[in-house]
Design goal:
This protein is an alpha/beta fold. About 45% of the residues lie in helices and about 10% in strands.
Length: about 375
């Protein structure tokens, strides 16, 4: 047990079915920008939330792509500045939520995201605009973290941006928004939440509070993800999944992620894998190697989740993924053996990879990737 640690999660969490239609109660000021992806705008979800704020001036920005680019951020920031946004609401998966974080800062910080991120020389001044994040998937956890992940089109590199200005003021958790998720998204986002929880648990910077949060989230996911996948209208399973994703988000908000997420960056930007797929495809292999430096801790986790050994846990997770038609080998997403060295080098370029409880160098990472090719 660690004798000294810190814990800070300043976001107010509001969890209630249907609460997304009551979000006006959290907004001071008149001008609101709702940031979502095109799907949530076109199907009316964003508009329904905007319409619930009858006394507000609501604008929308929906040109958000997966793995959002810095250019999308700057385009959204222009809209926020033009309307003098008092509140920015991020609605959707991690892409929309992450963009809302930096846009809420850029309302009163001049210039481009490039001035502050990925080699930029400026520092964000304290955010003055209210930031509300409303997830529509049970996976991202971004609603309770101070991290945004963006793709720099100039370098073709996807990297995290960490600042305390990104803590949302409110995380509004409405399970009803997940009821219509298709099975493939239920699976990939749910396994992303699993990765968040387990990476926080084995993390070299883990703290006792996170350990207990992660244990609960992991158990909740294993008990509910297949139900939500097989029975999309199972509201109890849906509610438990978004609760688990929230808890996992709170856990990794304190520790950051590890090798799974470091390797995921090139798998999304260069091979087109969804974020959840790019993370979970290496999950069983990372579970196995986590025993290298955390054998007892991982044995405790395996036993708690109903497995005799850590290797059995890794096998069980892989079988779960297969049962949800998720890829478990890199060649299934188009990776060739000739790509492995490049993926290794990009992954090693992310500092979080060294938070993994195993030796992470060119030889060990390459060997891990080759084992799941």
């Amino acid at each position: 047990m660690k004798e000294k640690f810190t814990y800070c999660m300043p976001t107010r969490v509001c969890f209630e079915a249907g609460i997304s239609k009551k979000v006006a109660q959290f907004i001071k000021g008149d001008n609101v920008l709702i940031i979502s992806d095109p799907f949530l705008f076109n199907n009316g979800v964003a508009k329904a939330i905007g319409d619930s704020m009858a006394d507000k001036n609501v604008a929308y920005f929906s040109d958000i792509e997966p793995n959002p680019s810095c250019e999308s951020v700057d385009a959204a920031a222009k809209v926020a500045r033009d309307i003098k946004a008092d509140c920015v609401i991020g609605l959707g998966g991690g892409s929309s939520l992450d963009v809302s974080k930096i846009v809420s800062c850029l309302v009163t910080n001049e210039g481009s995201i490039y001035d502050y991120y990925s080699g930029g020389t400026r520092t964000l001044k304290p955010r003055q605009t209210t930031l509300i994040c409303i997830p529509t998937t049970a996976g991202t956890g971004s609603e309770v973290t101070n991290v945004g992940v963006f793709t720099n089109k100039k370098t073709h590199i996807k990297m995290p941006f960490v600042t305390n200005e990104f803590w949302p003021d409110y995380a509004v958790i409405d399970a009803e928004l997940t009821y219509t998720l298709p099975p493939s998204v239920t699976a990939s986002t749910g396994m992303d939440a699993f990765c968040h929880a387990i990476e926080a648990y084995w993390n070299k910077e883990s703290v006792p509070i996170c350990d207990f949060l992660s244990l609960g989230a992991l158990k909740l996911i294993l008990e509910n993800i297949k139900k939500a996948y097989d029975e999309p209208e199972n509201t109890a399973a849906r509610g438990n999944m978004i609760l688990a994703a929230l808890i996992a988000g709170i856990s990794f908000s304190q520790t950051r992620t590890t090798g799974i997420h470091a390797i995921s960056f090139p798998l999304t930007t260069e091979f087109g894998a969804s974020h959840g797929t790019a993370c979970s495809i290496t999950l069983p292999a990372f579970i196995k190697i986590s025993q290298e430096q955390e054998p007892e801790k991982m044995k405790t986790l395996a036993n708690y989740l109903g497995y005799d050994t850590v290797d059995a846990l890794a096998k069980g997770v892989e079988e779960l993924m297969v049962s949800m038609n998720m890829p478990v080998r890199l060649h299934q997403i188009g990776v060739k053996e000739s790509d492995l060295l490049h993926i290794t080098e990009v992954g090693l370029g992310a500092a979080i990879i060294q938070l993994t409880p195993a030796v992470m160098n060119k030889d060990t990472v390459y060997a891990l990737l080759k084992s799941i090719l």
